[in-house]
Every structure is written in structure tokens, then in C-alpha cells.
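Sequence, please.
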């Protein structure tokens, strides 16, 4: 099934065109690396897909998620808001509320799926609270569940952001330079976590990266943007050092590329079933909830 379809998508800011008639399709269960120099249009493309930006009008452009139209010719469809609930976005700056506990931040992933009054008052159902703790357990942060977000390291906060989209039960994850401000060890852990979610849950992941070695190590497919145009779209194994040099406008051989092998497709584990949140009541997450 096609998870993302873009046709003739153009985006301008004032007189500057940032994206030129983009044509893309991403299938279910893919992990795609989005690469390109600063200003190439990567973040704008992600913001268009998740509905934070409108495309230009007058081009008959179209964006569809899960086979249903979200934008056409710069206008949002009636179903766009409902479809955006299926999309989890991970930003470079984590976007956690520092004064709140980590688990409360993670519960924000449920805001689109509970009545507004419950979200405003923080009265989440028990099933949602257990689900949030299970997500934290999965990313290795169950012990920090009740710490203030401000006390966590950058890598821990970004794993908290991943737990938030897990709690959201997002079918598509868009990560906009999620490791740009992290140390190498934390960056590797974040990318490995996203890859695990992709393989185990069959969640489609698009991750924007400046670190080319991580794109080669973790992604099955590379989409490369230059000056707002797609100049490469294909399996990771097909892109060459010369392609990378052309992408960044440097001489071949001048980039110190890590000797990462192109990611090999792995046999996916059986998808995790999103349960009621109570099916693991005898686990660590439930015990943390009981002691909260």
C-alpha cells in the first residue's frame, strides 16, 4: 500500500521556490533516508507531508496519505485532520515541555485520540497511561518516567519523543534531523531505535539526515534533494560516492564517508498489535504506574 503520494508539489516562500514539482511515492514499511545540503528543502518537504505547510496553489499539486487526499492545489481536504493523527513527527529540538514529567510528555501522543477536556485536565484513561509507560519501557527509559523532562540528556529527551509517537500509535513517522544535536553514541541509539520500530512494527519511517553514514547504515532507500529537486530516489545500494559528491557540490573523494554498507532488507518481525494497554499488567510499566 502507498503510504505517501506526492504529485506536482511545489512550495515557495515569497519569490523563492523551495520545492519544484516534487513527485514521490513511499510504500508501507519502508525506511527512507532524506538527504541533501542545508536549504535543499528537506524540512519543508516533511512539513508539507505532515500538514504543517500548504503547497503553492495553481499547480494542481496533490498530497495523499494512506491512499486518501490531504491536500490538493494548496487546500486541505476535509479528512486531513483525521489523517494527521496517524502521522508522528520527531523534531530536532525534541519539543518536550521541560517542567512536565517524561511520562506526561509521552501522553501528549494521545491528545488527538481523547476528548479535549480530558487532555486539557490531564485525565488520560488508565489504558493510555499504561501504553505510555510501555513505550518508555521499549525505548529504555522506564526508570526516568517520572523525572522532569528538563533533567534528561538530549539523547534521553529524543527517545522520549520517540516514545510519544509510539503512544500515538502513528502509522507514519517523520523525523526531521533527529540526531543533529546529539553526540555520536546517542545518535546511533536513536537511529537504531527508529530502525527497530520500522522492522518490528512495519511502521513507515522517513528520516531527514545530514549524517550520511547513518543513512547508509539504517535506511533501505535514499531520497536526495538538491535545490528543491529530487536528484536521487532509489535503493541505498545504488547511490555512489560520486553521487554524494555531486549532491553536496564537492570534489569526489573529498568527503570522509564512513564505510557503512548499504542497509540490507531484513525479514520483518510480526507486527506488534496495539492492545488495550492492559495486556501487560504484570510488566514493569504497570508496576511503575501502580507506584506513581
Amino acid at each position: 500500500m502507498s503510504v505517501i503520494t506526492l504529485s506536482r508539489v511545489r512550495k515557495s516562500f515569497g519569490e523563492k521556490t523551495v520545492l519544484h514539482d516534487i513527485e514521490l511515492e513511499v510504500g508501507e514499511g519502508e525506511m527512507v533516508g532524506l538527504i541533501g545540503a542545508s536549504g535543499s528543502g528537506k524540512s519543508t518537504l516533511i512539513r508539507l507531508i505532515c500538514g504543517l505547510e500548504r503547497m503553492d496553489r495553481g499547480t494542481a499539486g496533490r498530497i495523499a496519505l494512506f491512499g486518501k487526499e490531504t491536500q490538493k492545489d494548496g487546500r486541505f481536504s476535509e479528512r486531513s485532520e483525521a489523517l494527521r493523527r496517524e502521522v508522528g513527527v520527531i523534531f530536532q529540538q525534541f519539543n518536550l515541555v521541560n517542567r512536565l514529567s517524561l511520562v506526561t510528555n509521552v501522553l501528549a501522543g494521545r491528545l488527538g485520540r481523547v476528548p479535549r477536556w480530558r487532555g486539557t485536565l490531564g485525565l488520560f484513561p488508565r489504558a493510555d497511561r499504561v501504553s505510555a509507560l510501555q513505550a518508555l519501557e521499549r525505548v529504555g527509559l522506564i526508570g526516568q518516567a517520572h523525572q522532569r523532562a528538563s533533567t534528561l540528556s538530549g539523547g534521553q529527551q529524543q527517545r522520549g519523543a520517540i516514545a510519544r509517537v509510539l503512544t500515538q500509535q502513528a502509522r507514519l513517522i517523520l523525523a526531521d534531523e533527529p540526531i543533529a544535536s546529539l553526540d555520536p553514541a546517542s545518535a546511533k541509539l536513536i537511529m537504531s531505535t527508529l530502525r527497530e520500530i520500522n522492522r518490528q512494527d512495519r511502521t513507515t519511517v522517513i528520516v531527514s539526515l545530514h549524517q550520511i553514514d547513518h543513512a547508509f547504515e539504517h535506511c533501505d532507500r535514499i531520497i536526495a534533494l538538491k535545490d528543491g529537486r529530487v536528484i536521487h530516489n532509489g535503493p541505498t545500494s545504488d547511490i555512489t560516492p560520486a553521487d554524494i559528491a555531486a549532491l553536496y557540490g564537492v570534489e569526489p573523494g573529498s568527503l570522509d564517508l564512513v564505510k557503512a554498507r548499504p542497509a540490507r532488507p531484513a525479514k520483518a518481525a510480526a507486527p506488534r498489535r496495539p492492545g488495550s494497554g492492559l495486556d501487560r499488567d504484570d510488566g514493569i510499566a504497570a508496576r511503575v504506574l501502580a507506584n506513581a
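The chain has one domain: 30-51+81-291.
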